Automatic annotation (TrEMBL):
One of its GO terms (molecular function) is metallopeptidase activity. Keywords: Signal. The keyword Signal applies. Pfam families: Ig_7, Peptidase_M64. It comes from Sphingobacterium paramultivorum. Residues 399-461 form the Ig-like domain. This is Ig-like domain-containing protein.
């Protein structure tokens, strides 16, 4: 082999290795993280024309774009379905290539030194200086005969950076460090950092992410059927027929003569036509459908679904979900196709509910958002399924209660009985142990005006199977006698009334006074900023006559148990 050729090959190999090594050093900023990239839309931002010294500017620009992106519907409602990563790609020189060869280019020079470093409010028809910086992706103006069409030229370099950093990317945005208006679509949505250019990137994402058509006439070569463009004007045939008559959706012509007159769009004010507009309902629906197609609401599932489960004891099944905001999910848990729970993210399952042989536990999610109208989208269900191979029939587990087998309550008070970790789908029945009669159902029951100690029993029921009963004893504390001897002293000169409970003082008790509406008159704790119970006897209350209705109540309180007596009324 020729010696010079051999040396040249070695140099090329070294250069390639250096290039790859440089790419591997780029830092990734995680601007939003919702979950594993296998279940989420991965929005990846790349910077072009940012030198190493300008990486903080790039970080700020990437954050600004992200904030803008999630301020637009439907991304705002579905932001939890997105991860956002910004790769800090470095260019040798700053800016973008500009030859000013397009017919609509405004010739002239702009002295950028007159402006602050991050000045980016140049109008779209402003003169852009001729420039040929060496940037990592080679983004340039003046493509396709349009000055504002800014396109990265080094696509292989973009592919390489993505492969090494975020191979599971879903949508890519290239931010070009130029203060002048411009951007483009295609495989990579591209935007300069001009204050109006973010809309270009979002518009272009409509093409690449949701396969939306332009709702302005871009030329015959783009005249193909799409979710928001059709050559049919038949209300029964247009792709957006389910939206007709809703929020301005209709059938509108692209133009009066020539090719545009043969094509139709759904709206007269949509971001796919005007950058400053919101997305119309038809386009928003397509975005939501695309988000669902490219992601899953099931970010994490426990236990894992990788193998069948043998259930021999009560087990928890849980989900971590990406949800719209506001949440429009309708969720169902089904055991062997029988609904056992709805609209909760976790359940407990008892093996005693399973049959011998094959069993399934399925979770189904339907999005009821009003952003969807097409039946194929509305009726879509996301689901996960656990499978069980049950070897033998097991008994239902005996219920356990949250606070054990004994609860105390005040005389005449209330109590709540709660099953700990209730099993989805089971019916819980509570019985009076003395009579054996079934009194209440539910995993959480509320008992009122209890005046005697009593034993309750609870059991779980599933179809024709019943668990053993669990015993709960409710112990009633001693009844507290209400205050009897209240002395009233009125001082007309001071315009006050003093109320005093004259009953024998007992350090275990104090008194609470209530106004005519029955609201306690507590002390104000200045330090903690809240009302607190008195620590002393509190058997004396002095009030202004003008602030009183002439009717006050008083209760005796056990300071240890906080149990109360009946109220005594005082009229003066």
């Amino acid at each position: 082999m020729n010696k010079n050729l051999f040396i040249a090959l070695i140099v090329l190999c070294i250069s390639a290795l250096q290039l790859r090594a440089q790419s591997s050093l780029f830092k990734i900023d995680t601007l939003q993280y919702q979950g594993t990239d296998k279940h989420i839309v991965n929005l990846v931002i790349l910077g072009d024309g940012y030198t190493k010294a300008q990486l903080d500017d790039y970080a700020a620009d990437a954050k600004q774009f992200t904030n803008y992106f999630f301020s637009i519907e439907p991304f705002k409602q579905y932001s939890s379905f997105f991860n956002v990563f910004a790769i800090r790609t470095i260019s040798e020189e700053s800016g973008a290539v500009h030859d000013c060869k397009a017919g609509d280019c405004v010739h002239g020079e702009t002295d950028l030194s007159k402006y602050p470093p991050r000045y980016n409010k140049f109008t779209r028809d402003h003169a852009v200086p001729i420039a040929h910086p060496n940037t990592i992706f080679g983004s340039s103006f003046d493509n396709g005969g349009l000055h504002r069409l800014v396109v990265p030229q080094k696509n292989d370099r973009i592919e390489e950076v993505l492969k090494m950093h975020t191979p599971n990317y879903t949508q890519v945005v290239v931010l070009v460090n130029s203060p002048f208006y411009g951007g483009s679509g295609g495989k990579w949505a591209t935007s300069t950092v001009n204050f109006k250019s973010n809309d270009i990137a979002v518009h272009e994402i409509g093409h690449s992410f949701a396969q939306l058509a332009d709702e302005y006439w871009a030329g015959n070569q783009y005249a193909i059927e799409s979710a928001n463009r059709s050559q049919s004007a038949d209300a029964k045939q247009v792709p957006w027929k389910y939206w007709l008559g809703k929020d301005g959706v209709g059938i509108y012509s692209y133009g009066g003569k020539g090719s545009p007159s043969n094509w139709f769009r759904p709206h007269e004010y949509c971001k796919m036509q005007y950058l400053v507009a919101p997305f119309c309902p038809v386009c928003q629906e397509q975005f939501v459908a695309s988000i669902k197609k490219k992601s899953s609401p099931f970010i994490q599932v426990k236990p894992a679904l990788d193998k069948p489960i043998t259930l021999d004891s009560v087990q928890k099944f849980s989900l971590r979900l990406a949800k719209p905001s506001p949440n429009t999910f309708k969720m169902s848990w089904l055991l062997n196709d029988q609904t056992i729970a709805t609209d909760i993210d976790s359940i407990y399952l008892d093996p005693g509910m399973l049959s011998v042989g094959a069993n399934t536990l399925k979770v189904m999610i339907q999005d009821t958002t009003n952003l969807l109208r097409n039946p194929s989208y509305v009726n879509h269900r996301d689901s996960v399924v656990w499978t069980f191979n049950q070897v033998k029939l097991l008994e239902l587990a005996k219920p356990s209660t949250t606070w054990g087998d004994t609860l105390e309550t005040c005389y005449g008070g209330a109590q709540v009985l709660t099953v700990k970790h209730p099993i989805a789908g089971l019916e819980y029945r509570w019985y009076d142990a003395a009579t054996g009669f079934w009194e209440e159902t539910g995993s959480n029951i509320f008992l009122q005006n209890i005046v005697e100690s009593k034993v309750y029993l609870v059991r779980g029921i599933w179809d024709d199977r019943v668990s053993e009963k669990t015993k709960v004893y409710i112990n009633i504390l001693d009844k507290i006698d209400k205050p009897k001897n209240i002395h009233v002293k009125i001082d007309k000169k001071k315009n006050t009334v003093q109320l005093t409970v004259k009953d024998k003082v007992d350090a275990r008790y104090n008194y609470i006074w209530l106004n005519e509406e029955g609201n306690p008159i507590y002390e104000w704790d200045e330090f903690n900023g809240e009302y607190v119970r008195p620590t002393g006897v509190n058997n004396v209350l002095t009030m202004k006559l003008t602030t009183s209705s002439g009717k006050i109540y008083v209760q005796k309180i056990d300071k240890e148990t906080t149990c109360k007596s009946e109220k005594t009324i005082v009229i003066f």
